[in-house]
Design brief:
The longest helix is centred in the first third of the chain and has 24 residues, at 200-223. Helices cover 43% and strands 14% of the residues. Helix 5 links the parallel strand 4 (86-90) and strand 5 (110-111). By secondary structure, the chain is an alpha+beta fold. Strands 6, 7, 8, 9, 10, 16 and 17 form a seven-stranded antiparallel beta sheet that branches. A five-stranded parallel beta sheet has the order 2-1-3-4-5, with helices on both faces. It is built from 24 helices and 17 strands.
């Protein structure tokens, strides 16, 4: 589904609803909110109903206005009838009407009636995340991933009588008689076992029979090919390798020989559509045949079909009965499914403690879904003491086995440094793994990371390209090997962007966005051929590079680009310098008004530069320094030395971000993030 949370609100509370939506989506939790998500060409009512039915939970912005809104009441009614959790976010102290109270009385409430509201929204995000992001996996019939590429189907003859026996009636699909213990019933009066009378004639018959059986086994060993166990072993190996073309005929042969493991695996293939066309009826037949021989996989499979209502009427209690048979044999998939039933309270009384106990047993046997679901419990302190390190360990175990939900949650923990060392690279890597499996949360999280505003504007204006995937990793590896990164211990490198420059041969500027001590910052460096220097506010490294790399200042474009670069790389007492030409070049604070912006309109100048008779470049323009803007004149000689003179104050005390280099050469600011970047 595209969204996880439906936000119900009145029109008057739209600002709060939008803030909640923004906070949730910043955490990768996609929301549906009107009017933003009402689909074009679809009626408002239809869009609302579809969105609520497809969501996982509702957040209700509760106020005087929503309390009296018939529209909000209808939305809550639909969510209640759909069985979705409803989380009221109360922004006003008002008594809830009876209609709403009926739907949410037993729900957890979050009060947000005091300032700052942002703190309450943070708690809301945490509560929502526990409900919709870290949720258990679905019940499983097998832990093997489903593949839906069918191979040529072969006729299965599991229901035929074994060689040497007769059968008076063909057993219909799903009708194999099975006792509660999982064993086949033996019809009354059956005398197909060993003879119980040992007369002399009988003894001879038995002796001859024993010789005959021995001869039969010798013949089968020499001439009849591999045993059912051998065929099953080969078939299961191919199945686990997802080579269903090989697995199918082998498992069919072994199932015809009534091998319970082969019947189980073949039943899973038909139940899940792994390598064959999905056929729940045939799956039930095979799984019941396996369960009749007391195979825990077959018992789990029969329970699964009852739990989802495929080929048999849905019956949670019957599913539980079958799961318990397999749990008694410590079968991990059954342990997981029974734990899930306790977590959800389906077929058994709800018990997180029982769920944890069963998931611990399954997780210890390497069950990926149990590891993931148990990690959820540790991450949220449900029935266990909250332990984010244990949660991260379990997510890792599950993610390593390809569990997409665990990969998403592990990425989330790496992104916040919960239970693990914070790493943007690991966060992206795990999201990408989950996204490659089609996980919509992972895709959404990646989109949010890539579209998030940078920690600051680029050093100079231009067409910067953000490096992705292998290009990003390759540049970070090269960066780590350069002397420019001498102070980079403890930096969590996030995004990388680059800008080609033509005033150095093979020149390019690079900026690494990083996380250090709870804050984002930007580190800028320059490459020219084999040379690499840090841009840290001190011009000495630029002068040293100019002495080694041939500086190109032949054209006006090269001279303008170099001057903008050099001035932007200078640090004064209050901030760094930057050439600006338009009001949009200034990094305005959110509280800046149109009046503030208009104060500089018409007072900023385009950079004007020309070459004099001596071959040096001279020009004039506008420079921002600290919270003020100044007129200035510039001079650039052939060696790249820059002088700035005759600076005249135009306007000061602007509501703009003030940016500078710190002692490590990082560009930071103390007044928050810019409007864009």
């Amino acid at each position: 589904m595209a969204h996880k949370v439906f936000i119900s609100h009145s029109e008057r509370d739209k600002a709060v609803a939008d803030a909640v939506c923004q906070a949730l989506e910043a955490e990768g939790i996609r929301c549906w909110i009107a009017p933003r998500d009402v689909r074009a060409g679809v009626s408002w009512k239809q869009s609302i109903v579809e969105a609520i039915r497809q969501t996982r939970m509702m957040v209700l912005i509760f106020s005087t206005e929503s309390n009296g809104s018939p529209q909000v009441q209808r939305e809550v009614d639909i969510a209640f009838e759909s069985g979705h959790p409803i989380l009221p976010f109360r922004i006003e102290d008002v008594e809830m009407n009876d209609g709403l109270y009926y739907c949410v009385a037993a729900r957890h409430w979050l009060d947000a009636m005091t300032e700052p509201r942002e703190e309450h929204i943070e708690k809301l995000v945490s509560s929502v995340r526990a409900l919709v992001v870290v949720e258990p996996d679905a019940a499983q019939i097998d832990t093997h991933p489903a593949v839906t590429q069918p191979v040529e189907e072969e006729r299965i003859k599991v229901s035929e009588a074994p060689p040497g026996r007769t059968r008076t009636q063909e057993a219909p699909v799903g009708s194999l008689p099975i006792t509660p213990s999982g064993r086949s019933k033996t019809p009354a009066g059956d005398t197909s076992g060993l003879a119980t009378r040992f007369t002399s004639r009988g003894f001879k018959r038995v002796a001859i029979g024993v010789i005959g059986v021995a001869a039969f086994f010798l013949w089968r060993t020499l001439f009849a090919g591999p045993s059912a166990a051998g065929i099953t072993e080969q078939g299961v190996a191919a199945y686990e390798a997802e080579d269903y073309t090989v697995a199918l005929p082998l498992l069919v042969r072994a199932a015809e020989k009534e091998n319970p493991e082969a019947q189980y695996k073949l039943g899973v293939m038909y139940a899940s559509g792994q390598g064959v066309e999905k056929n729940p009826g045939r799956a039930l037949e095979l799984l019941q045949a396996s369960a009749a021989q007391d195979h825990p996989g077959g018992q789990t499979g029969v329970g699964y079909l009852y739990g989802v209502g495929e080929a048999v009427p849905k019956d949670e209690e019957e599913a539980i009965r079958w799961y318990r048979m397999a749990v008694a044999k410590e079968f991990p998939a059954a342990q997981y499914n029974l734990g899930l039933s306790y977590r959800r309270g389906t077929g058994v009384p709800a018990s997180d403690e029982e769920a944890v106990r069963l998931w611990q047993a399954a997780a210890a046997q390497g069950n990926a879904s149990a590891q993931h679901s148990l990690a959820n419990m540790y991450a949220n302190g449900l029935a266990v003491e909250k332990d984010v390190e244990e949660a991260a360990r379990l997510y890792q175990l599950s993610a390593d086995q390809g569990n997409a939900s665990a990969q998403v949650n592990l990425g989330w923990m790496f992104g916040r440094g919960e239970g693990v060392i914070r790493s943007y690279t690991e966060e992206v890597r795990w999201y990408e793994k989950a996204a490659a499996q089609g996980d919509s949360v992972a895709r959404n999280n990646l989109e949010i990371l890539r579209n998030r505003a940078w920690a600051g504007a680029p050093l100079v204006h231009g067409v910067w390209a953000t490096l992705e995937g292998e290009d990003r990793l390759a540049e970070l590896e090269r960066f780590a090997a350069d002397p420019v990164s001498a102070a980079s211990d403890g930096w969590d490198q996030e995004r990388v962007r680059t800008l080609s420059i033509d005033f150095y041969p093979d020149g390019a500027l690079y900026e690494v966005e990083l996380w250090l001590d709870g804050e984002r910052a930007i580190f800028t460096y320059l490459r020219s051929g084999e040379h690499a220097i840090a841009i840290d506010g001190i011009p000495s490294q630029i002068h040293a590079l100019n002495a080694e790399a041939p500086l190109r200042l032949e054209t006006i474009r090269q001279a303008v680009s170099y001057l903008q670069f050099f001035i932007g790389a200078l640090q004064g007492d209050d901030s760094r310098f930057q050439i600006v030409e338009e009001p949009e070049d200034l990094l305005w604070l959110p509280e800046a008004t149109d009046s503030d912006r208009n104060a500089v309109v018409g007072r900023l100048r385009l950079l004007d530069i020309n070459r004099d008779d001596s071959g040096e470049w001279q020009g004039s323009g506008t420079v921002v320094y600290g919270p003020g803007v100044y007129d200035a004149n510039f001079r650039v000689d052939a060696d790249g030395n820059v002088s700035m003179t005759d600076d005249i104050e135009i306007v000061t005390d602007l509501l703009i971000h003030v940016e500078g280099f710190d002692e490590n050469g990082l560009r930071t600011r103390a007044d928050g993030e810019p409007e864009g970047g």
